[in-house]
Amino acid sequence: MEFRGYYKTREQGSLRMSAHHHGNHMEAVGSRSLRLSLFIVLGVMLAEVVGGLLSNSLALLSDAGHMLTDALALGLSLFAMTIARRPASATKTYGYHRAEIMAALANGSILLLIALYIFYEAYQRFDEPPEVRTGLMLGVAIVGLLANMAGIMLLRRVSHLTLNIKAAFWHVIGDTISSVGVIVAAIIIAMTGWRYADPVAAIVIGCIILWGAVVLVRESVDILLEAVPGHIRLDKVEETIKQAPGVVAVHDLHVWTLTSGIYALSAHLMINDQMVSRTGEIVDTVNRELDEHFRITHTTLQLECERCESCPSGFVCEIKRPESEPHEH
């Protein structure tokens, strides 16, 4: 006897509802923090553009460029969060959660290009570093530092909620370090006359931007490739599932991230031969354990009493292309 095609997904009652309401509240807080940070970044960016042009400082203009990408990133993040709230439909059964990940990938890609441009401009200035008005450069950089510190305070508490808010938080962290670099460069030029401090500071800022971009792109690509989340080990998941009474083996196991903080799982569970009406308890137990140990809240479980021929050994099965095109009905 075999129970192929038996699928069940279960929400965990009042605890899930409480977590849902808490999540909505924190998402609203995150959205407000992003909006306030966006206004701060836009104000500082305009000040640095004007200050960089008047002082002839590449470091200040580089920081303004960084601020511009941050403004784009924050705006894109807010847009993605709004889109992600749209409900699932018959054509998009998982909803629009991946919009946040696509926005994060776009943010990281933009940052990569900005970093390369800063390196190019710094290289040009090493040939003949221009005169820099250090007083104006220093004053604008100090204003930028104070504004960025305010942005860090706004985003620090909610930076763990989504990949986009995390991206915005690291943008602001990078801006803060950049402002410190500009301040140091201005002081060095004012005290020693060593004008190379300006392009050197720009290169340091570029390296900070590049590092953050690589992290963002890597995390976004992992999610789009449906890689196993970093905090989850498949062997531990298999072990946890097999501890449920009635489960003999696990195969065709897949775990992936829908969007930041939302994890999904599908698996075939080989169980003892029994009545279908008694299998609901197995599914409930497995879902409860997966939620408690791995924060996996969306599952699709197929119960069967015979080993799947496509998975002769192990819990990971190869996904094969169909031999023929699907027929339209």
Please name the defining characteristics of this protein.
3 strands, 2 domains, Alpha-Beta Plaits, 329 residues, mainly alpha, disordered N terminus
Order of helices and strands: HHHHHHHEEHE
CATH homology group of the largest domain = Cation efflux protein transmembrane domain
Overall CATH class of the largest domain: Mainly Alpha
Largest sheet: 3 strands, mixed
Radius of gyration: 26 Å
What does this structure look like?
There is one protein chain. The chain has two domains: 18-224, Cation efflux protein transmembrane domain (Alpha-lytic protease prodomain-like, Up-down Bundle), CATH 1.20.1510; 234-304, Cation efflux protein, cytoplasmic domain (Alpha-Beta Plaits). It is mostly helical. The chain has helices at 13-55, 58-84, 98-127, 134-156, 163-192, 197-224, 234-242, 280-294, and strands at residues 247-259, 262-271, 296-304. Strands 1-2-3 form a three-stranded mixed sheet.
Q: What is the strand and helix layout of this fold?
A:
Blueprint: H1 13-55, H2 58-84, H3 98-127, H4 134-156, H5 163-192, H6 197-224, H7 234-242, E1 247-259, E2 262-271, H8 280-294, E3 296-304
Parallel strand pairs: 2-3
Antiparallel strand pairs: 1-2
Helix pairs in contact: 1-2, 1-4, 2-3, 2-5, 2-6, 3-6, 4-5, 5-6
Give a summary of the structure in a few sentences:
By secondary structure, the chain is mainly alpha-helical. The protein is built from eight helices and three strands; from the N terminus they run H-H-H-H-H-H-H-E-E-H-E. 62% of the residues lie in helices and 10% in strands.
